[in-house]
Design brief:
alpha/beta; ten-stranded mixed beta sheet; four-stranded antiparallel beta sheet; 18 strands; 14 helices
Length: 491
């Protein structure tokens, strides 16, 4: 990768960001609580958007959305892998508190979740798509009592066979299948749900959880695959030459899924406008984690590692009744447990004491930023076999990423000057003071959340998990050994 390519990749970030600091006078909805539509994609890294400066991906509709929304530049996944993120999203709690730090765990029924709180506050609640919180066999029926309060349900535990994926609905244990590419059919269902709910006197909260752009990448619709030529894809400079050929092959399909979702986002936004509910609807587009695509020498399809391609996620929030229709780049970091309390704050609903994240709604309402804020993300017990499969805790500010592994300080990056995280500042003694400041802030956050920061083995024993040698949840044949977090005292 030449320096010229590097500049081409990075310049749009500066260009777009420069026009997003306009302010608008905040105004408040006087009567009805806002509707909330939460679009959750799977494995879409923050940098893989046109508005973020990626020179390859075609996301014109999302780029247009970003121009009229708050774009949280420094959003991170609290643990960059599916189940831990989703548990933190639903509960507003950290994986160290819930024990939900591995894939395929069962979210305890006693956890207080988003739909339960919003439902009690008078909302209709809906969930469409990938769930990944039941901890049972990935194709099994999820009964109503295990849906954490969602009343409308067309979902599956986990299925990435995008052209023949399944779901269950209502009380029926009959396995249903989406027609064709599931993103498009799930979008149609979401549109119908919005049309129906817009006629109700009650507000609604809808989660639409797409499985894409998570691999397999080459199963994206042909018309979107044809948009990309792997030979002309520009990779960032942190992809080593040995992985570039495979990374380009995977990137072609990855970007194709992204463009297909972009089409669906446009259709959902059009439905919101057609139903006349745009002004009083909080619309969020984000992802549970990113994907490396060969960056830092990591397998193109892996996540869990601490780097930006894995941990940083897009987070676009549009709420015209409060923020107006002028876009703004938000530097203030946000981590997954912050989302639940922030949604409650925007809806003027009391926040349960169980929530551990911060309510950022006051910053959104006042059109303000917090330049001093720092947030946590982590991997408690890695279940990947890679060089970077080490337990870590990380802190993200509006400028720096500081990562401490179980073995000690690991990485320090200036994300503004070094967006591809190629220069580990821990090797530069002139940054010792900054490292010490960030280390102190990291441990302050850990103390606040009661995080002992021990080895993965410590937490597996603490929560009573039986795992494979790599730390993943085991199967017997095609069946998962279902496990629910259960604290065990460590002597």
């Amino acid at each position: 990768m030449t320096n010229k390519s590097y500049i081409f990749f990075a310049l749009p970030i500066l260009f777009i960001g420069s026009g997003w600091f306009q302010t608008t006078k905040a105004h408040y909805p006087k009567r009805q609580k806002p509707n909330i539509i939460y679009i959750l994609t799977d494995q879409w890294r923050a940098s893989a958007m046109g508005y973020s400066g990626d020179p390859n991906v075609k996301t014109p509709n999302i780029d247009a959305l970003a121009k009229s929304s708050l774009n949280f530049k420094n959003a991170v996944s609290v643990t960059p892998v599916c189940t831990p993120y989703r548990a933190a999203l639903m509960t507003g709690r950290y994986p160290t508190s819930t024990g939900m730090f591995l894939n395929d765990l069962h979210l305890p029924d006693e956890e207080l979740c988003v739909a339960e709180v919003f439902g009690k506050a008078g909302y209709n609640t809906g969930y469409i798509g990938k769930w990944h919180l039941d901890g049972n066999e990935r194709f099994s029926f999820i009964p109503i009592e295990k849906r954490q309060g969602f009343d409308y349900w067309k979902a599956a535990e986990c299925d990435h066979n995008y052209n023949h994926s399944h779901y269950y609905t209502g009380n029926s244990g009959e396995k249903m299948f989406w027609n064709g590419y599931d993103v498009f059919d799930q979008t149609k269902d979401a549109q119908q749900y919005i049309r129906t709910q817009s006629k109700s006197s009650k507000p609604f909260i809808l989660f639409v959880a797409f499985g894409a752009p998570h691999f397999p990448h080459q199963t994206a619709p042909k018309e979107y695959l044809d948009l990309y030529n792997e030979n002309t894809i520009l990779l960032p400079p942190n992809v080593p030459e040995s992985l570039q050929q495979n990374a380009k092959k995977e990137a072609k399909g990855y970007y194709a899924h992204c463009s297909a979702i972009d089409k669906s986002i446009a259709e959902i936004l059009s439905t919101i406008d057609e139903e006349g509910i745009r002004e009083n609807t909080v619309f969020i587009l984000t992802s549970d984690h990113g994907e490396m695509l060969g960056s830092q020498g990591v397998d193109p399809k892996l996540k869990q590692v601490p780097f930006a391609e894995s941990a940083n996620v897009p987070f676009i929030l549009r709420y015209p009744a409060v923020t107006g229709n002028i876009g703004r780049l938000v530097q203030m970091p946000v981590t997954t447990p912050d989302i639940f309390p922030t949604l409650l704050g925007l809806a003027n609903i009391p926040i349960p004491k169980s929530c551990e994240g911060d309510d950022l709604s006051s910053f959104i309402r006042r059109n303000q930023d917090d330049p001093h804020r720092a947030v946590l993300y982590m991997n408690i017990s890695p279940f990947i076999k890679q060089e970077y499969a080490i337990a870590y805790r990380a802190i993200k500010t509006n400028q720096y990423t500081y990562i401490r592994s179980i073995n000690g300080p690991w990485f320090l990056f200036d994300d503004n000057k070094d967006p591809f995280q190629m220069n580990n500042l821990l090797t530069n003694k002139s940054f010792d003071k900054i490292r010490k400041i960030l280390d102190t802030r990291l441990y302050k956050l850990l103390k606040k959340n009661g995080d002992e920061f021990q080895t993965g083995a410590f937490y597996l024993k603490k929560w009573g998990y039986h795992t494979n040698s790599d730390g993943s949840i085991p199967y017997i044949g095609d069946k998962l050994i279902q496990q629910t977090p259960k604290k065990i005292t460590i002597n």
